[in-house]
């Protein structure tokens, strides 16, 4: 075996950053040592692993083929090192990406469980839209993702964690809040404030409403739920948000859930991970504890 773990680590970090200089900074190496290590690996393998596009280095076909295999070797090496160092089987870092709804309502409790039962596991967390989490898992920035709705990419496995229901809400002073039921025609006349395109909430809502209304009057689109919630509570807009995001505001009378019989919008919150990912006991532990948590304390969603 002519290549080294150091060379694979350089290759993997250059793939992460798209830059030899940035990879050198991450690995605490000189730029010349990083370039030499990568050049030696390419020479030994007899294939170019990167091609330059502008200022970035992008994986070639051979680089894409090598990357999951290099990830597997590096992960195994980390487990060996951490296992002997800490004398603890489940130790090391898991990189988790989560969309907003699970990040706010599920992930904190799950991290608390992991911290209590598996204190040697370190968890880094990125919170983004569902589409960005999926991209992050595909790009190896995350070992595991928790997303809203479906993922149709055959490069990823998906496992349902729980069901989430969406509600169409208005302020307490909105005219629709006084109606026992709201029609599709009334929804078509309303002004809307919605989550941004790419979010799981927006995708689920549009999938349901597109069967009834071709063109909604969308006045504003925002990434952050608190902004949308406040605009609706204090204005004349409608929105569609996860029940967990509006439950407290419905209970205190600031928002009203509208009864639209034609629309019953639900979706799954799910784990996603790469099909070609090496066996990873940290990811398996995180998924197992998440499913156990939902069985012990099912949420009204």
Automatic annotation (TrEMBL):
<dbReference type="Pfam" id="PF03466">
    <property type="entry name" value="LysR_substrate"/>
</dbReference>
<dbReference type="Pfam" id="PF00126">
    <property type="entry name" value="HTH_1"/>
</dbReference>
<keyword id="KW-0238">DNA-binding</keyword>
<feature type="domain" description="HTH lysR-type">
    <location>
        <begin position="1"/>
        <end position="60"/>
    </location>
</feature>
<dbReference type="InterPro" id="IPR005119">
    <property type="entry name" value="LysR_subst-bd"/>
</dbReference>
<dbReference type="InterPro" id="IPR036388">
    <property type="entry name" value="WH-like_DNA-bd_sf"/>
</dbReference>
<dbReference type="GO" id="GO:0003700">
    <property type="term" value="F:DNA-binding transcription factor activity"/>
</dbReference>
<protein>
    <submittedName>
        <fullName>LysR family transcriptional regulator</fullName>
    </submittedName>
</protein>
<comment type="similarity">
    <text>Belongs to the LysR transcriptional regulatory family.</text>
</comment>
<dbReference type="InterPro" id="IPR000847">
    <property type="entry name" value="LysR_HTH_N"/>
</dbReference>
<dbReference type="InterPro" id="IPR036390">
    <property type="entry name" value="WH_DNA-bd_sf"/>
</dbReference>
<keyword id="KW-0805">Transcription regulation</keyword>
<dbReference type="GO" id="GO:0000976">
    <property type="term" value="F:transcription cis-regulatory region binding"/>
</dbReference>
<keyword id="KW-0804">Transcription</keyword>
């Amino acid at each position: 075996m002519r290549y080294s773990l150091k060379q694979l680590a350089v290759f993997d970090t250059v793939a992460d950053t798209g830059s030899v200089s940035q990879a050198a900074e991450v690995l605490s190496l000189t730029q010349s040592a990083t370039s030499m290590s990568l050049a030696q690996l390419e020479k030994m393998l007899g294939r170019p692993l990167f091609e330059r596009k502008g200022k970035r280095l992008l994986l070639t076909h051979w680089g894409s083929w090598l990357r999951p295999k290099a990830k597997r070797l590096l992960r195994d090496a980390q487990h060996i090192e951490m296992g002997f160092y800490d004398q603890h089987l489940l130790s090391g870092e898991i990189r988790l990406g989560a969309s907003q709804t699970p990040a706010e309502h599920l992930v904190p409790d799950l991290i608390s469980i992991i911290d209590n039962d598996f204190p040697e596991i370190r968890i880094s967390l990125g919170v983004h839209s569902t589409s960005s989490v999926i991209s992050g898992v595909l790009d190896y920035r995350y070992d595991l993702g928790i997303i809203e709705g479906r993922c149709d990419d055959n490069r990823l496995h998906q496992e349902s964690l729980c069901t989430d229901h969406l509600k169409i809400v208005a302020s307490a002073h909105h005219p629709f809040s006084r109606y026992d039921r709201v029609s599709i025609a009334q929804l078509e006349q309303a002004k809307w404030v919605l989550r941004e395109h790419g979010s799981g909430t927006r995708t689920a809502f549009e999938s349901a409403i597109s069967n009834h209304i071709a063109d909604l009057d969308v006045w504003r689109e925002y990434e952050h739920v608190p902004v949308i919630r406040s605009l609706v509570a204090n204005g004349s807009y409608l929105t569609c948000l996860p029940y967990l995001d509006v439950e407290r505001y419905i209970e205190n009378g600031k928002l009203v859930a509208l009864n639209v019989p034609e629309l019953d919008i639900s979706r799954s919150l799910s784990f996603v991970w790469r099909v070609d990912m090496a066996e990873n006991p940290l990811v398996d532990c995180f998924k197992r504890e998440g499913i156990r948590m939902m069985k012990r304390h099912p949420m009204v969603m």
